[in-house]
Amino acid sequence: MDEHFLPSCLARKEHLDYECKPIYSLTQLLKWTPNETEKQLFNNVPDMKQSTALDGPKVLLCHDMKGGYLDDRFVKGCEDKDAFTFFHWSKIDHFVYFSHYLVTIPPITWTTAAHHNGVLVMGTFITEGDGGAEICKVLFSSEEVMHSAARRLVDVAMHYKFEGWLLNIENEILEEHVDLLIKFIRLLTNMMHENIKGSKVIWYDSVISSGKLKWQNELNSLNSCFFNECDGIFLNYCWKDEHLQRSLDFSKQKNRQYDVFVGVDVFGRGCYGGGGMNTNLAINKINQFDLSLAIFAFGWVHETLGKENFHENQQKFWSSLELKTRRLFCTLPFESNFCRGFGKFYFKNGLIVNDREWCNLSLQDTLVTNYGSYCIDDGFEGGGCLSISESYDPLLECQILVPANGCLIFILYKPLNQSICTNIVGKHDGSEKKLILYPLSLEKQNKLNFLQDYNIITEVGINGWNTATFWLKNEDIEVINGIYVTAGGKEESKTSLLLGKIKVTRSRHM
Questions:
Q1: Is this entry keyworded Metal-binding (predicted)?
Q2: Which of 123, 179, 211, 370 could form a disulfide with 393 if both were Cys (CB 3.0 to 4.6 A apart)?
Q3: Looking at the structure, do residues 213 and 342 belong to the same domain, yes or no?
């Protein structure tokens, strides 16, 4: 993609050819120092958008796609609308970028998209096989080396603007080194917490307290020494009901049941239900035990079903999982152009300004919670728009306090001759309330001035897109929990609407 279409934070010419790469060796890690060009680039990665995490079991999503660092490693993206992407951010709490290199640094594209949607991002530190065993002998040869490695991992996370590490030691550890391994986990976790707010270090179920490589598929006395020193454990995939029950019982003793992430391999390797489109069977089983969930290798959809119908298959796969919304946006303003980070075209103000296919997760916007049908043949800004014909699910689930002056909701939509209304679900005086809002009636010039003042658009009816403006009073609803959009003023209308943008902001005029 041309420089013109990159986010402003990524559009400097010296950044266009930048590629995100892992750290390949322990020597490289120990000698690592910040790069100034990288610093300029990654300083512009957005902070995690503020949201309210819901109670209950958490969801960790672990990337594993053909070894990693494919088209996603390029800052400028690629010219393939069917490249591997992800947009169901509201269904997860943590995102892990995974590869089999020693230190996996999440590419800026993934970190940017995740942060836009309030999701914590983690890299991976992995050792495996005979080579991994040799690395661990050096790593734990002295406290000095161990401490230096932990310090560098924290520095790397701070530099590349992500918030955690998955520790995956899949090789045997010398018995005399186990204590240093435990100390390494404790040190890394504490240093991450001290330097990065909300950071997480999660241990993968692999070696046990003797140093032997022996996957447990549960939390128990053989691996709890590692779990005790960090923020959670990612269980191996070959569990049965009894493993989950023992994990639940053991973790409850420590009041940490939601820090146990039960692994599910979408490729189905040794996993309950067989993975693939039956992944929901494993998830439903885990839900019965009220433990957290770790989904591994969701690239299965792209790798096995092909890229030609990837986006349709991706939607089918994630819909089958029936995951609940995990986070609610809670601050104003909230704004989204619904862009999922790919397209046949790139739109600005409803016009095509780039007619080549593209994919770049950095251009993915903050996404609403009802994904609907995504249209890439039209759009107002970005790669496409939402097509909505039914309103059974809210466009946006949220937890937004309505200011004393109320708030305004702007929605850009097509067709121009279609009427539109919003249904607001929220709370007033502690009770649930539902309210139907109709657009404000404004004379054309007043409407133009009004829209310009709120930085919406510069014209009324621009390039076939209209703007509906809704005013929600604090005296009617104090907290917004859901925003529904319907056509024709009828709650169950089948009329299709194209939605190009939504903005919810404080009212300054009313």
A1: no
A2: 370
A3: no
Residues 327 and 398: beta-carbon distance below 8 Å: no
Query: What is the residue-level pLDDT of the chain in tens, covering all 510 positions?
Result: 455 455 554 445 556 678 999 999 999 999 999 988 888 889 889 999 888 888 999 999 999 999 999 999 999 899 999 999 999 999 999 999 999 999 999 999 999 999 999 999 999 999 999 999 999 999 999 999 999 999 999 999 999 999 999 999 999 999 999 999 999 999 999 999 999 999 999 999 999 999 999 999 999 999 999 999 999 999 999 999 999 999 999 999 999 999 999 999 999 999 999 999 999 999 999 999 999 999 999 999 999 999 989 999 999 999 999 899 998 999 999 999 999 999 999 999 999 999 999 999 999 999 988 767 899 999 999 999 999 876 667 889 999 999 999 999 999 999 866 778 889 999 998 899 999 998 887 666 666 666 667 676 656 678 889 888 899 999 999 999 999 998 765 544 555 789 999 999 998 755
Final residue in a domain of this structure, among 192, 224, 259: 259
Residue-number span of the structural domain to which 401 is assigned: 334-506
| Whether 381 and 238 share a structural domain | no
- Here the contacts of 67-73 (C-beta below 8 Å, separation 24 or greater) are 67/99, 67/100, 68/22, 68/97, 68/98, 68/99, 68/101, 68/104, 69/20, 69/21, 69/22, 69/99, 69/107, 71/359, 72/20, 72/107, 72/109, 72/110, 72/361, 73/19, 73/20, 73/21, 73/107
Instruction: Identify the CATH number of the domain in which residue 480 sits.
Output: 2.60.120.260
Give the CATH number of the domain where residue 7 resides: 3.20.20.80
Predicted TM-score (pTM) above 0.85: yes
Question: Do 238 and 377 belong to one domain?
Answer: no
Q: Do 249 and 368 share a structural domain?
A: no
